[in-house]
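Hi V.,

You were right to ask for the full record rather than a summary. Here it is.
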Amino acid sequence: MYDWTRLHALLNDLPAALLVTAVLFDLAGLITRRPSFRQVGFWTMMAGVVGGALAVISGLQAEELIAHGEAVHRVMETHETLGLISLAVFGVLALWRIAREKRMGAGERSFATILSLAGVAVLVATGLYGGRLVFEHAAGVPSEVLEAELRERAQEHHHDGEKAGEAATSQDTAAARKAADHVDPPGTPPHTHSDPPGTPPHQH
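Predicted structure:
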């Protein structure tokens, strides 16, 4: 069985980065009116849409394989919906630009840029829900792996306590040795013991 879960994790980051980069270049082109920025934005968006389609396909496949409960299912459904919306927005933008890139006027290009900014907002929300799946619900992590990790963490915590105790014992031993090895320099008067005022006489 192919591991769609790991493939989805692998394919997530690059398309999102490409799409955000494309929008930044489009904004730079809109502000500076330099065609080179628009060209870079165009091709970067094309690559991002292709990668985004692969990420969505792998995510839909991974959904069928991940063991999950009701709470994970709700987050997963929201993540899926946002991912499809993101792909739809940028897919429409890509087709629009393929057809109109060389004939766009300033107003049309401004509207396309605003739509792409909305797509970035949805894309960020998609990533946030994907992060919740992994970091709050450990989605995609097999139960036996998660149980083994919890046991290992508990053992590491126990070892940390033992190490702290060993360190304290070592410090006490070192202090005792230092006291035992202490020798007064020549000419030091012998230590005398004096009781505090009011202490009754010692019984011999």
